[in-house]
Amino acid sequence: MKTITKQLFILALLASGFTAQAITNSAIAVSGTNIVLSWPSYGYESYLIQYRQTLDPSDSWSALTNAYPANSTNQTTFTIFGVVPQQGGSGGSYSVGSGSPPRPSFASSSMTAMNSEPLAVPVDGSGGGAPVAIYPPGFDFSNFNIFDPVSGESVSGVGYTVPLLQQSASLTLDDAQPLDSGSGDPPQTGFYRVFHIPNWLANFSGYTFDGPTFIPVDYAAPDAPVDYVDSTTVLINGQPTDDAVFMPYVINGATNWGVGIYFDRFPNGTNTIQLLTTVRESDTLNDQTPYMVFSNAPVAITIGNLIMFTNWDDLIWNNTNYTFRAQTVANVDWEIDIYDINDNFVNYQTGHSDDGNIAWAWNLTDYWGNSRNNPDSDPDFYPYITITGNLVQNADNEPNAGSSSAGSWMPPVAAPYPSSGAWLFAYMDNFYDDGTTNYAGADSYYLNGIQTMEGGPEEWSYTAYDYPIEFGRSYSQTNRNDSWEQLTYNYLGSSEGQIRNFYYFGHGAANLIGGDISLLDSSNNIIGSKNLPGSKAFMTTQIVHDNITFNKNSGAILYRFVFLDGCNTASGGWPAAWGVPKQAEPESYYTSSANKNHSRPSAFVGWDVEIGGSKDWGTVPNFWNFRSYWMSDWAGTFQQDLADSLFDGNDFSGWVSPSQFNSHNKVYGYTQLEFLQWNNGGDWP
Q1: What is the DSSP letter of 473?
Q2: Residue 311 confidence (pLDDT)
């Protein structure tokens, strides 16, 4: 991995030594006709505040305010004005905001159970019952009795725990409580919840961003702990950018998490920056895994690079030459030196720029005249630029007297494709054996199906790797973690970049695949997987984006074909993580300006529901017959396109009805991709 001079460091020094804590001891109070929410704070946090009138599934949470700043260093308050009916009268108009209301008196609350879920009732009688499902994981119920509305019985809350958010209606709550006006009028009931949202842990005022820079982010448990952040997207001027990385950085011995942003890929001037964070709300992985997406408020920033790369190409996409481009101040001499993946010098060029625009069309030969256009031996190049001239300018953008030099690593340049794209077939090895005996004999269909699919590329002499992922209770956590690390970095993200076609079978969710052990229902059927404490036995959309597809440190690796054969893999951000548009695209798209990455036609296949494991998804033999047939059709002599091969594979296998298959099997990108199309280095464009 190459060292970039600034290496995403600068703003790390601006981070404060905050330690984020879970919101506890939050309270709700009535002050006149107003409701006052309050909770502990440190003074730097931002919050999302939501409301819903009932917990009925037909009701939903709505935002009262977003990116609400803490207004105290020990107790933040938020006031909802005019929602409590006056004594003997009706309530006032509904409005929200902050203010300085009279000191509140805490009102008792009461509520009729809206469903059959257990209720938490304060032992001291200070309030009515609220469903236990709305409390955060790990909440201490010692001061509550747990009331079962079905049996009418109560038990002590001592030792009672809430599983980690089992349903989307029970996302992380911070002591939300039902409300009662306390008057003789019918109560105005409802629920409020407060989320501590990820936000920048740095003050941008007066700061100018230059080059790769690390910005620490306030990822706060339990609402947005780092281990549950499956995706972080940076918006510059309201547009998502691929020039950002979710990463840790150690400052004074403490690990800080945040984003490294390559500001030298953006024009100089005033811009806005914003953060979107997708947080998984459960350790259970299946099509029911709940997610929350948090956004902070846009903030104005100043970008001021000495050298920038605003029209950079990450790929040597035309196979014959590549143009290095940069922008800097006017009237400079420049030199670009190229190094290969083994740190060997390749070639260099010098020149002069009157207007600050720098361009060198390199013919892919080295200093000694040898061709360097073999993608197998030269998958990446690393250029370094040096400029010399009057680099310090005055307020009128005129050069000052004197001459100086500056240099920096330019972004890496990757070969678009190896001489032939290899295949990887990865699958959870104990999928049918972990924790259940309901699938006796299933392994024979399972392994035969995997091996039959591997026969597709082998028939055409393409390299196909077989990778069983260590899964289940028979392995240690370390072994499971290591197995996924090898898959991610030694195979999919290998610096050699040979693998460009990937099939995965196993558990999944909208933004994550993997898990440690099988999750079983009451009948001992497999319904998903579960991440155990300390687990790294998974892969997220963020990991793929940062370390494989849009790798800004060692070079991009774009995949031609990806099939994530697991639950719900087509519902979230997986297609985009692999660089595939989340829609069908014609071949003409890939030669148009809309294809900003210069990728060759590529396709993603996934599902938008939980597949298998129930009577609605056929038998295990037919399940695996489909997987054998679709590959046989796609790689067969007649060269059917991808979408037709998938459909016919299901039809021939008798797995599920055509309508069910078409409803839930999703193919994105170039859906007409043929098996042999564009799988060799010189095939495209």
Answers
A1: T
A2: 93
Integer Cα distance of 445 and 624 in angstroms: 6
Write down the residue that tokens 């902070």 correspond to: 296
User: Residue 334's closest CA among 350, 354, 347?
Assistant: 350
299-303 and 254-262 as β-strands: parallel, antiparallel, unpaired?
A: unpaired
Tell me what pLDDT residue 106 has: 27
| Three-state DSSP class for residue 650 | helix
- The amino acid at residue 666 is K
Structure-token match 């290095």, residue found: 324
Largest CA distance in the chain: 93
Q: What are the residues whose beta carbons fall under 8 Å from the beta carbon of 241, sequence distance 6 or more?
A: 234, 235, 261, 265, 266
Domains along the sequence of the chain with CATH:
10-17+201-303 (2.60.40), 27-197 (no CATH), 322-414 (2.60.40), 422-669 (3.40.50)
Closest C-alpha among 498, 48, 507, 529 to residue 277: 48
Query: Mean pLDDT score of the chain, rounded to an integer?
Result: 84
**Using the 8-state DSSP alphabet, how is residue 559 labeled?**
-
Residue 272 · residue 300 · CB < 8 Å: yes
Interatomic CA distance for residues 15 and 480, integer angstroms: 34
Question: Cis ω on the peptide bond leading into residue 85 (within 30° of 0)?
Answer: no
How many CB atoms within 10 Å of residue 239?
Answer: 9
Q: Token pair 């030269």 is at which residue?
A: 378
Asked whether residue 294 carries a pLDDT value surpassing 60, the answer given is yes
User: What's 106-166 look like in SS3?
Assistant: CCCCCCCCCCCCCEEEECCCCCCCEEHHHCCCCCCCCCEEEECCCCCCEEECCCCCCCCCC
**pTM for this predicted structure:** 0.82
Q: Both tokens of residue 221?
A: 């448990």
CA angle 515, 521, 523 (to 5 degrees): 135
- DSSP code of 644? H
Contact 472, 506 (CB under 8 A): no
Nearest one of 643, 211, 240 to 406, comparing CA atoms:
211
Query: What is d(CA 236, CA 227) in angstroms, rounded to the nearest whole number?
Result: 25
Pick from 328, 489, 307, 317: which is nearest to 411 by CA?
A: 307
The pLDDT tens digits of the residues spanning 583-624 come to: 999 999 999 999 988 899 999 999 999 888 666 888 999 999
Sign of CA dihedral 307, 313, 315, 318: negative
| DSSP-based three-state secondary structure for 399 | strand
**What confidence tens digit (pLDDT) does each residue in 50-84 have?**
988 888 888 888 888 999 999 988 999 999 888 77
Distance, in Å, from the CA atom of 480 to the CA atom of 484, rounded to the nearest integer, reads 7
Opening angle at CA 528, ends 526 and 532, nearest 5: 115
CA distance 278 to 293: 4
Virtual torsion, Cα 370, 375, 379, 384, nearest 10 deg: 40
Q: Which two tokens stand for residue 35?
A: 């409701």
* Residue-level pLDDT at 171: 29
Q: Is 349 exposed, middle or buried (0-12, 13-18, 19+ CB in 10 A)?
A: middle
Please list, in sequence order, all residues whose beta carbon lies within 8 angstroms of the beta carbon of residue 342, skipping any fewer than 6 positions away. Answer: none
Contact between 287 and 519 (Cβ < 8 Å): no
- d(CA 212, CA 260) in angstroms, rounded, equals 7
- 648 and 630 Cβ atoms separated by less than 8 Å: yes
CB atoms within 10 A of CB 410: 23
